[in-house]
Specification:
160 residues; alpha+beta; N-terminal domain of TfIIb; five-stranded antiparallel β-sheet; two-stranded antiparallel ribbon
Length: 160
């Protein structure tokens, strides 16, 4: 298995298949990721794929394929942060960086070092985003976006 974060062969491109519920473009996800995260009853009916990930936060579909297989949030072993209310989800599935703890860290210290912690784990070869992250891709960009959002929200509260 290749290194998940930063490896060019792990970059996901949008495909033409669209989520049957929301119509959002699906991102290709390895079958290994789908099988690793499905609950037992859903795993019994998994097909060969290829599967795609629906990132639409208003849609319950997580994975779908061209054969009509659809797996919803209830079919997964873990909550999917893209489907959770803002501020409620785990973003880094390898090292449990979540929005609530990042916001708390920022409130207590005036900064959040989650991106640096994740980068250090990546550099040490400890991440397994391609399997643990429901999106099947590196979480670092998502962690950085969450920290930026938390910082911006804090700044807007201070200015009021």
């Amino acid at each position: 298995m290749s290194s998940c974060c930063g490896s060019p062969d792990r970059v996901r491109a949008a495909v033409t298949s669209r989520c049957p519920q929301s119509g959002a473009k699906g991102l290709t996800v390895d079958l290994l990721t789908v099988k690793a995260l499905l609950c037992e009853s859903a795993l019994r009916v998994v097909g060969e794929g290829p599967y795609r990930f629906c990132a639409d936060p208003t849609c319950a579909v997580v994975y779908f394929d061209d054969e009509g297989h659809v797996f919803n949030t209830a079919d997964l072993r873990v909550p999917v942060w893209q489907k959770q209310p803002v501020g409620a989800g785990r973003i880094c599935y390898c090292f449990d960086e979540n929005e609530a703890s990042m916001a708390r860290e920022f409130a207590e210290t005036g900064r959040c070092d989650a991106p640096q912690r994740v980068r250090a784990h990546i550099a040490a070869g400890r991440c397994a985003c391609e399997v643990r992250n429901p999106r099947g891709a590196c979480c670092l960009g998502d962690v950085m976006k969450a920290v930026a959002r938390i910082e911006a929200e804090s700044a807007s509260v201070i200015q009021k």
